[in-house]
C-alpha cells in the first residue's frame, strides 16, 4: 500500500472517531446527568455539586427541582422536598421553607394546598392565612380571599389609608379609609326632580349621569326611584354616625352606619335610593328593588351590602345602597354573585 493511501485512511479514521465522539458527547462526558430524570440543567449540576444523588432514588421531584433551580434549596429539607407535592406558585418553595422551619410535617404541608394553590395567595401573608384557617375551618375554600379582604382582623382594626381615592374603583370599607383631606373634585348636583334631601344632592359626574339614566329608564316603565342620599362630606358623615350611636347604641351604629372617612358616600360614588320618598326600610319588597336586581349592573351599579354577605361587608343588609363601579365591573360582580370586597381581591389584587 502506498504511503499516501495509509495517510488518507488514518485521516479518515480520526475524522470518524471525532464525529462519533461529537454525537455521543453527552453519554461520554456526562455520566451523572439528572436531566434525563426531568431535572433542569441547573438543578442537575447542583445535584452533582451537593452530592445528593443517592437521595433521589432515580425519580423526579418537581419540588426539589424548583428549590435547586430557584436557589432556595435548604439542605436540611432535602428529604421533605422529595415528598412534598409541588404547587405551581412562584412563592411555593419560599413558603414551604417557612413551614418546614416552623416544624410543619410533610403531610400537613401537602394538606395546605387549599391555601398554597390559591391564585390570590401572597407569601407575606402566609401566617395570617394559617391563623384565619385555625379559627374558621368552615371557610376552608375561601381562606385566602377572606384573609386578603382583611377579615382575619376585627372590623375597624388594621386600617389602611386609601392611596387612590379618586379611582372610580376605590374600595372604602371598615379596613380602608379615605385620606383626611379628600374631597372629590367632579361632583355634580342632581336636578331636584330626582332627589329628596337637599343636603346630599351631589355625586361624581360619571355616577351622577349613570344614576339619572337609570332613574329615567325605570320611570319610563311606570316605576319610581328617588335619590335619598348621595355624596356626604366627612363632617356630615360624622354627624350621622354620632347620632346613630346616640339613638341606637354603638353596636347598632357599627353595622348600620359608617365612621367618617369609612363611608362610600364620601366618595360621591354611592347612592341610597328607594321607591318611596324618604323611606329606605322595606325597599326590598318593592318592584323597583326587583328591577334593580335585574338591571342595575347595566348602568354600572351594584347592590353594595347584600343579604347574607353581612359578615364580609361589615354592614347590615341595605337593599337601598348602590355603588357605582361601571358596567363592566358591575356585570362581573353580578355574574359571580360576589361582594365588592371579593371582587377587589380577585381582580384588583387587593390584600
Ligand atoms: Zn348608603
List the helices and strands and how they pair.
Layout: H1 3-23, H2 25-29, H3 41-50, H4 62-69, H5 78-83, H6 92-101, H7 106-110, H8 113-116, H9 126-135, H10 143-149, E1 160-161, E2 176-177, E3 187-189, E4 202-204, H11 205-220, E5 226-229, H12 234-248, H13 250-256, E6 270-274, H14 287-295, E7 301-305, H15 310-313, E8 318-324, H16 327-336, H17 340-348
Parallel strand pairs: 1-2
Antiparallel strand pairs: 3-4, 5-6, 6-8, 7-8
Helix pairs in contact: 3-4, 10-17, 12-13
This protein binds zinc ion.
What do these coordinates show?
- The mean pLDDT is 94.
- α3 packs across α4, α10 packs across α17 (340-348) and α12 (234-248) packs across α13.
- The chain has 351 residues and is an alpha+beta fold.
- It starts with a helix and ends with a helix.
- Helices cover 44% and strands 9% of the residues.
- The site of zinc ion (ZN) has 5 residues, from β6.
Largest sheet properties: 4 strands, antiparallel
Give the number of DSSP strands: 8
The class by helix and strand makeup works out as alpha+beta
The averaged pLDDT comes out at 94
Q: What is the strand content? A: 5-15%
CATH architecture verdict of the largest domain: 2-Layer Sandwich
Strand order within the widest beta sheet:
5-6-8-7
Alpha carbon gap, first and last residue: 86 Å
Question: How many structural domains in the coordinates?
Answer: 3
Cα gyration radius (Å): 31 Å
| Ions and ligands | zinc ion
Order of helices and strands: HHHHHHHHHHEEEEHEHHEHEHEHH
Output the CATH class name of the largest domain.
Alpha Beta
Overall geometry = elongated
Helix proportion: 40-55%
Low-confidence stretches: none
Number of helices: 17
Amino acid at each position: 500500500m502506498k504511503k499516501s493511501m495509509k495517510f488518507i485512511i488514518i485521516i479518515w479514521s480520526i475524522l470518524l472517531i471525532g464525529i462519533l465522539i461529537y454525537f455521543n458527547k453527552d453519554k461520554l462526558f456526562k455520566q451523572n446527568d439528572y436531566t434525563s430524570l426531568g431535572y433542569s440543567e441547573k438543578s442537575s449540576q447542583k445535584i452533582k455539586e451537593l452530592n445528593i444523588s443517592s437521595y433521589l432514588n432515580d425519580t423526579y421531584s418537581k419540588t426539589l427541582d424548583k428549590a435547586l433551580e430557584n436557589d432556595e434549596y435548604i439542605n436540611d429539607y432535602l428529604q421533605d422536598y422529595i415528598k412534598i407535592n409541588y404547587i405551581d406558585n412562584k412563592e411555593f418553595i419560599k413558603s414551604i421553607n417557612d413551614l418546614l422551619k416552623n416544624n410543619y410535617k410533610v403531610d400537613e404541608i401537602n394538606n395546605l394546598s387549599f391555601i398554597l394553590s390559591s391564585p390570590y395567595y401572597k407569601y407575606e401573608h402566609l401566617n395570617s392565612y394559617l391563623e384565619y384557617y385555625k379559627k374558621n375551618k368552615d371557610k376552608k375554600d375561601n381562606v385566602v380571599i377572606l384573609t386578603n379582604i382583611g377579615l382575619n382582623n376585627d372590623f375597624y382594626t388594621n386600617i389602611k389609608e386609601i392611596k387612590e381615592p379618586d379611582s372610580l374603583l376605590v374600595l372604602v370599607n371598615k379596613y380602608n379609609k379615605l385620606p383626611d383631606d379628600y374631597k372629590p373634585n367632579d361632583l355634580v348636583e342632581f336636578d331636584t326632580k330626582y332627589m329628596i334631601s337637599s343636603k346630599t344632592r351631589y355625586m361624581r359626574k360619571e355616577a351622577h349621569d349613570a344614576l339619572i339614566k337609570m332613574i329615567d329608564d325605570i320611570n319610563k316603565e311606570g316605576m319610581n326611584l328617588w335619590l335619598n342620599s348621595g355624596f356626604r362630606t366627612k363632617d356630615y358623615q360624622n354627624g350621622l354616625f354620632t347620632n346613630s350611636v346616640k339613638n341606637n347604641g354603638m353596636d347598632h351604629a357599627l353595622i348600620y352606619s359608617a365612621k367618617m372617612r369609612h363611608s362610600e358616600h364620601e366618595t360621591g360614588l354611592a347612592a341610597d335610593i328607594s321607591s318611596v320618598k324618604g323611606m329606605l326600610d322595606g325597599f326590598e319588597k318593592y318592584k323597583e328593588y326587583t328591577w334593580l336586581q335585574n338591571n342595575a349592573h347595566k348602568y354600572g351599579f351594584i347592590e353594595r351590602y347584600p343579604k347574607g354577605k353581612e359578615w364580609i361587608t361589615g354592614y347590615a343588609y341595605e337593599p337601598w345602597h348602590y355603588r357605582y363601579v361601571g358596567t363592566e365591573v358591575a356585570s362581573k360582580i353580578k355574574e359571580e354573585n360576589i361582594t365588592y370586597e371579593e371582587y377587589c381581591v380577585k381582580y384588583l389584587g387587593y390584600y
